[in-house]
UniProtKB/TrEMBL annotation:
Keywords linked to the UniProt accession: Kinase, Transferase
Domain Polyphosphate kinase-2-related: from-to ranges: 39-263
Name by which UniProt lists this protein: PPK2 family polyphosphate--nucleotide phosphotransferase
Region Disordered, residue ranges: 1-44
Gene3D superfamilies: P-loop containing nucleotide triphosphate hydrolases
Originating species: Mycolicibacterium sphagni
Annotated GO biological process: polyphosphate metabolic process
Recorded GO MF terms: polyphosphate kinase activity
């Protein structure tokens, strides 16, 4: 049974799932796959779906409190301005912060560099009952690292298999993994970067290096293609999210999270006490 809003003609988890053979170059970042609505009506849908997500997230948290060690991990990968922060704020942010574990992964610190690249990732994994969000992730170690040749190919090349094994281990230990590759067009990216330069309240989001990265888009495209081709697995599939329309990307990822949580078959944990007895006690207290 699905409770998808009627504007969806196809389930996001099906229509957005990366299929072998698909090309990053063919992604239209301005498209809205499977959704017939437009921006005008999206706020209302988003508000309702935020609530649905929040309800399920609370249920996951409640189960965690009762000893269930299952968790959900959302991996957000995308170029600058793709809207990762907006997903954190407007989608995951609808949940209860108590049960959310957010981690942004920037340039590794000296301490992090002294360890295996998965060291900092393991430390940030969501505990049982939590929704973890990775704003960038271990995939940077086969994206920026590959594009800028920060380590030689014989070092980054084995990482795809290593990441698959790592994610399998995670999935086997009860973590549902939702990986979103967020694509923004070069035109829209330019517009968003220009806005950051036009508004003093957005300067903090601008990094001059973003312009250099933008110029490397063909290399990134190749690196993203390799990620999707080599790390789309049954236990940790990639979803390809067109992000020129922020409202669409948010609705889509919201649905992926709802689906993932529903897939866990959660219910409210039973009371660990005799309810009637406690009611009697309370009445007399
Ligand atoms: P954002 O730009 O997402 O707001 P930050 O400014 O904190 O976040 O840092 C992101 C930068 O860190 C990006 O340029 C990204 O490529 C880089 N980065 C992340 N992980 C790694 C890594 N493992 N090695 C090198 N650079 C990395």
């Amino acid at each position: 049974m699905t409770d998808l809003p009627s504007q969806w003609t196809h389930e996001p988890r099906k229509i957005l799932k990366f299929h072998p053979g698909s090309k990053v170059a063919d992604v239209d970042p301005n498209s809205t796959p499977g959704y017939t609505g437009d921006k005008d009506g999206s706020e209302e849908v988003q508000a309702e779906r935020n609530e649905r997500f929040a309800g399920l997230q609370e249920m996951l948290y409640a189960n965690g409190k009762s000893g269930d060690n299952r968790s959900l991990l959302l991996v957000l990968q995308g170029m600058d301005t793709a809207g990762k922060g907006g997903i954190v704020k407007h989608v995951v942010g609808a949940g209860d912060p108590m049960g959310i574990r957010y981690t942004g992964f920037g340039v590794p610190t000296e301490e992090e560099r002294a360890h295996h690249y998965l060291w900092r990732i393991r430390k940030a994994l969501p505990p049982g009952g939590h929704v973890g969000v990775f704003d960038r992730s271990h995939y940077e170690d086969v994206l920026v690292v590959r594009v800028h040749e920060l380590v030689p190919q014989d070092v980054w090349e084995p990482r795809y298999d290593e990441i698959n094994a790592f994610e399998k281990e995670l999935a086997d230990s009860g973590t549902t993994i939702v990986k979103c590759a967020m694509f923004v067009s070069l035109d829209e990216q330019k517009r968003r970067l220009a806005e950051r330069l036009d508004r003093s309240d957005k300067y903090w989001k601008f990094n001059p290096a973003d312009i250099d990265e933008r110029l490397r888009w063909p290399d990134y495209q190749e690196a993203y293609q390799a990620v999707l081709d080599r790390t789309s697995t049954d236990h940790a599939p990639w979803f390809v999210i067109p992000c020129d329309k922020k409202w669409y990307a948010r609705l889509a990822i919201n649905e992926l999270l709802i689906e993932a949580l529903k897939g866990m078959g959660l219910s409210w944990p039973p009371a660990g006490f005799d309810v009637e007895e406690q009611k009697k006690r309370l009445a007399q207290a």
